[in-house]
Amino acid sequence: MESMGTKPVRALLPVLSLLLASSLWGVVWYPLRLLEARGLGGLWSALVIYSAASLPGLIVLWSGRGQLRRRPWGLLVLALASGWCNVSFILAILEGTVVRVLLLFYLSPLWATMLGWAMLREPLTRRSALMLMPAMAGVVVMSWHPQLRHLWPQEAADWLAISSGFTFALANVLVRKLSTVGIPVKTAVTWIGVAGVAAVWLLLEHSAVPEVTGGWVWGAAAALGWFGIILMTVSVQYGVTNMPVQRSAVILLFELVVGAVSSQILTPEVVTPREWLGGALIVASAYLAARAQQVHPE
Length: 298
Hints:
Elements: H1 6-27, H2 29-37, H3 42-63, H4 65-70, H5 72-95, H6 98-105, H7 108-120, H8 126-143, H9 156-177, H10 183-205, H11 216-241, H12 245-251, H13 254-266, H14 273-295
Helix pairs in contact: 1-11, 1-13, 1-14, 3-10, 3-11, 5-6, 5-9, 5-10, 6-8, 6-9, 7-9, 7-12, 8-14, 10-11, 12-14, 13-14
């Protein structure tokens, strides 16, 4: 029998898992930039990184093949949603204005709230609004730039960012909806989906194998898949599976804060007071979501 102190601790584990994932996603842009500078573009990076992660994932899928037969169509949609989300975000962040891409991508909590209501019947409560509003205000404060006067999508990178945010929310809703499928199987399906979408995209573009600077580049991309993507994906899957998508979507916004801090440390970019204010609003929303998870664990 669990003690009263054990339950809040267990309820907090999904929150900590999402904060870990957000922190790692907030710095993963740096190795991706290094790979691109060495000649490994976005599509090829996605293919190598997620193919490397898929290798242990194939073992997981074989051992859990019974679960694949149980929910084949749901897992297929999860694979496609995850694949498009990751590939399109990588392309958008490399091709478009980073600030604009982040602003459009981080509309995902709105999509998650609507999809959670439509697909999971999660109620749209006052608590949900209180968690969501500061987070979205923080996104706008951090991402807004005077030159971005027109928020309507202007170019391909904008549409990629919006579609990435929508499919990110869809994938998180599906992870929670496929509750009869284990986290390892859903995680492996996600990796294979990203590698598959990247491979098809490359085939459609008739892309040749790039000439990279340094033979270590391919190995570095594979290592990022084995030691980075695996941990990040498992952390997201665990957190999303164990709380309503409205809360998880808010907590995942913590990535913006980590991204701002890491860019200040690793690049000449300076984080402005406006961006720190936006980060504080996002942290406040993450705290409210964490508190809600402790008081009302699902």
